[in-house]
Amino acid sequence: MKLPPFSAQHFRHTLAALLLALCATSPSLWATTPGDSAEPEAQARESAQTNPVAEDALGRSTPRGAFEGYIKAVAREDYERAAEYLNLSSLPASGRIRGQRVARILQQTLDRDGSVPPAVLLSDKPEGQLDDDQAPELERVGSLQIGEVKVALLLERVERDGELLWLIASRTLSQLPQRITDESALPINQVMPNSLIEHKWNGVPLGHWIAMLLLAGLCYLFSRVCVALVAGMARAVLTRKLRGYPTGLVRAFAGPIQLFMAVLLFVTAARRAGISIIVRQNLSEAVVIVAWVSMLWLIWRLVDVTAAVSEKRLTSQGRFGALSAVLLLRRGSRILLVVVGVIVALHMAGVNVATGLAALGIGGIVIALGAQKMVENLVGSVTLIFDQPVRVGDFCKVGTTTGTIEQIGMRSTRIRTLDRTVV
What we know:
Blueprint: H1 8-25, H2 28-32, H3 38-50, H4 63-75, H5 79-82, H6 93-97, H7 99-113, E1 138-146, E2 149-160, E3 163-168, H8 170-173, H9 187-190, H10 194-198, E4 200-201, E5 204-205, H11 206-241, H12 249-272, H13 277-282, H14 284-317, H15 320-348, H16 353-370, H17 372-387, E6 395-398, E7 401-408, E8 413-417
Antiparallel strand pairs: 1-2, 2-3, 4-5, 6-7, 7-8
Helix pairs in contact: 11-12, 12-14, 14-15
């Protein structure tokens, strides 16, 4: 059999067909072909920004983890590790070499007059707080007072080795002082014996811990005196102007406001005295808990005062059905406050309460569906008591029952029928 002549044109066609078949069976060749990888690389970068590969071993995946990691490092006086939480990329080469020095200068600046919220209030999300006034890659976690200038303490999200990490921003570090200052210049160290400065605990002079306890007691006493004076004047004015005002109103405000005022004074005094940022951050959770307790306590006292006033008024009017509704509402409000307090305490302890709240929501729906009739009767009784379509003593007909209403309660309404029986 004689084969057809094989020309150069036939060779080119055959080679092209083989290449097309090879590329069709090996799609990975397209990904490695230069010039065709721009779109996949862009998609990979976008995926890395939205879905970080893994959590950072140093905790820098979130703003809270980054700042807490820096505080823990300086508490151990491990400034080499603390430098890992700083973005030194835009500083001069000498600044990168002296990363440990920058970490220590930042600590001293925070000690002097640095204002940082409690760590539990910092964002614990990889993307940070997106509804603030900062760019998406920036997170403000406090401020620094450097001379007469107030500088924002910023974290910025940068990419390192394929991971997105939160580091203390280079624009903040560039405004720090250039040299380490004498720690004895701190106000708290000037009035403290040298023995309490030399002996340290958790990387902080022992005197700073003692000073925090003394400040807490002094702030509480000062707030108590101030609130007592204001409460006395308010009580005198209300007694003279409003003779029928609730007697427990001033007392309801006094205790919670005294506690909350003590917290504010304590935080401000500790910062002004130059107490170490390590001490302040270690005690920040306790400060937040006390502030929450004061607010919940205030609401609790206001509920009691409001309920007491309502009970007195309803008793004088003889509306005993409405009185039972007020007691139920007061009890329900107290239970709600206790639940809120437990949730806040669990959140402060680091427990993820979102899953539990979702489970409670589903459980609440199930209970509501199972007790639908009971809830319906409860809502109906409250409406009957407060809207008062009928009152005690009215003669009316309910269904097939005709008679005089003797009592309206939360669970039932008593009607005296014409044959003198009670339904």
